[in-house]
Amino acid sequence: MIRLVKRPQPSQAWSYGAPVLAVAATIFFGGLLFAALGKNPIDAILTIFWEPIFGEFSFFYRPQLLIKGAPLVLIAIGLSLGFKAGIWNIGAEGQYIIGALAGAGVALALYPLESVLIFPAMILAGALGGWAWAMIPAVLKTKFGTNEILVSLMLVYVAEHILASMALGAMKNPEGFGFPGSRNLQQYASAHNADIIENSGMHWGVVFALIAVIFAYVLLSRHRLGFAIRVTGEAPRAAAFSGVNPKGLILFCLGTSGALAGLAGLFEVAGPAGQVTIDFNVGYGFTAIIVAFLGRLNPIGILFAGALMALTYIGGDIAQSNLGLPAAAIQVFQGMLLFFLLAIDLFTNYRLQIGAGETA
Amino acid sequence: MDLSSISLTLLMATLMVAATPILFAAIGELIVEKAGVLNLGVEGMMITGAVCGFVVTIETGQPYLGFLAGAAGGAALSLLFAFLTQITLANQVASGLALTLFGLGISALIGQSYVGLKPERTPDLFPEALADIPVLGPILFSHDLILYLGLALVVSVWAFLKFTRAGLVLRSVGENHDAAHALGYKVVRIRTLAILFGGACAGVGGAYLSLVRVPQWTEGMTAGIGWIALALVVFASWKPGRVLMGAYLFGGLDQLQLRLQGAGVAIPVEYLAMSPYVITIVVLVILSADKSGAPASLGRTFHASQ
Description:
The complex is a heterodimer of chains A (360) and B (306). Chain A is mainly α and 360 residues long. In chain A, 70% of the residues lie in helices and 3% in strands.
């Protein structure tokens, strides 16, 4: 007879090992999925994980790793703070959109003025936009006890409609011959989030993502607020006794994750995307949830998880054009990863006992 | 703008159709939550049900087989959730999110070669003569079997929870799983069954969307209806009757905003289209003060050794 026995302490080894095992399991079952779709599984897996870093055209794909990884890390860092404390912001996609609109709005309003102050103003506006959008569920939660999961998620759909209205209306390029979408910010020097080193993919979003990682690491390991976050997640009653202000924590966690998601949106729209279009957002806000869990809600872990997830995006694109692998297959692949992680995580907190064991 | 073009009778008849997907998903989730489990994967199970129902209907030409397939698809996905949360004791919020992300992906994968096709029409239940009765006919008699099943389901769930022993056991598991376990009830088994029921209901709701309400398959076509269903359970205070009222209210608002778009009201289309989501938030805020109906063990993990 096999029984589950709760460990007195979560296992460190399993805690670090679970993401690795989950990736391995996903690669195995992903391979089966690709085989079921009639593709050679080994080819597909190599195309996704090997080609972008070591393949023939890796000089082109390596910068993409930074471009796709930065928003994922930036958003996931913010989400992880809340997730640790049991505050579930799942509307990062909406905050990302509103941050991008606020930042791009500043640039479009000032066009064609050139000034070194424009880009910092956009960054500020992007962060504020995302922060304000996240404050809606935060304030509703603290004032009325409304469920933040549902409100933040509903606001994603609201943000998507606002985006559509902006791309087709207020922010539409007046010189765009009637095509939907704003002016291209890549052609507006003061507003362009250009590569800091030419063709490296290293834009300001990457810098901010790294700063966010360091900031979160210090916050969680050295600061009182980080302690409050951890203790609230692990033992809410103990948190109350140790003087944690739960409402302040909700406002801080949701606000920070909103601001970081807003920044990610701004850097994307002013850089790689360039334009406010109906569908410039590609779901980073949702994928970042997987990144946050895969990184064990740990800043350093999130950095690796973000890089891995960026790899699946890029490799997925390559597999799509080279092997005809459907785009949705990569989405399934990413979803599977979270499944396996959640399942394998069992062994972090429990161990299997084989045999009868002592009776209670 | 011509508001007189909005016929109230027709609005009533179509709001019932618009409300049915939400109704199925919400009544299923109500049972799941009554058993103490929070499954945030409704959106994922709905869209899987939508694609399974659609594909089977196209392949067989049998809409009722399609609905069965929808139920099976939703239940199959919910089985994954049951495995994660009941066997491997994973966090329910995270598992539900995983289910939604996975469901959106797998449905897009299954449905990619079915975009733009038209499914066999689901037949109306009553003869046309009845549906031709002025006013009452279109409202009461112009629908398909599944819509009436949805109404019957609400009544059955209400009666099940209120009058049956099994309903009492289900509620006790949701209120206090340790006490239920001590009394000898199989907590994990009961919860797994509830999760499967919820998955099947969400699947039927999704299939109704792709087979009757739209009827077509497009990627991501549920567009948040599963989440609205989740919100509905909260502001219905876990009461089946209020779920019905809420679903019809939302069906009505949805149809009204579509009709206002059609009538050319001076509000931009995008703002009308976002109204169901905004209204959901507003209603949630107004009614979230009252949490008395929430099952006490909702969202908590159960492990027999604890």
